[in-house]
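Both lines are quoted verbatim for reference:

——
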Amino acid sequence: MDTSAHVKTLAHEGSLLATAAESAGTDADVPTCPGWRVRDLLRHTGAVHRWATSFVAEGHTAPRPDGGLPDLDGAALLAWFREGHGLLVDTLAGAAPDVRCWHFLPAPSPLAFWARRQAHETTVHRMDAESAAGGAVTGVAADFAVDGIDELLCGFHARPKSAVRTPEPRTLRVRATDVPGAVWTVRLSAEPPVTERAAAGDADCELSGPASRLYSALWNRRPVPEVASDASLAALWREKSGVV
């Protein structure tokens, strides 16, 4: 997916998130984020949006803290969220392709990184808002799901922060059953996972299913559609794969 597609998705997903949050009410529990209410979800996602905007708009070349969480609730909090989301979309859409700023995962450019990261950040939290509203959780397009799975496996879990580790080497396969060639081999050990974009060698466990469902499952928003062989590795993923 290219940057413009990610920005378009970000715009759509943020609108869906706000609508679901408004429907649920800011005091509603968020089942997919135990301990959170919708107000926590809006404050967090809105703060991340403003934080991301600051790098692209102001050209910061080193990490910096976000601006903190607002002391807002109800309609004022929803308005604050919508304002920050709109600012992020406009900033990314209007940025120069060669803008230089800090980013924390490999990407073709800083702009490509922030557009992709915020599209997926917002989509996952839109799922949270919809779960709080109590209705059906909207799926995502298969190509976007594959893109997000790749970011999660090859980006986030390649970092030293990843807690998905095993005392002895094990191999986890991840396969989107509705997208030809969408398969990853994740080698687990006492070190950070190493992921290859291929079905390389034997696997101790395979997680599979349609790309959209697999995407939400790998972000721990719903159960994995299918688990083959050693289910303990699927349990390890559920327990340890949270991104912080």
User: Anything to note?
Assistant: The mean pLDDT is 97. Helices lie at 3-24, 38-58, 74-94, 110-133, 142-155, 211-218, 231-240.
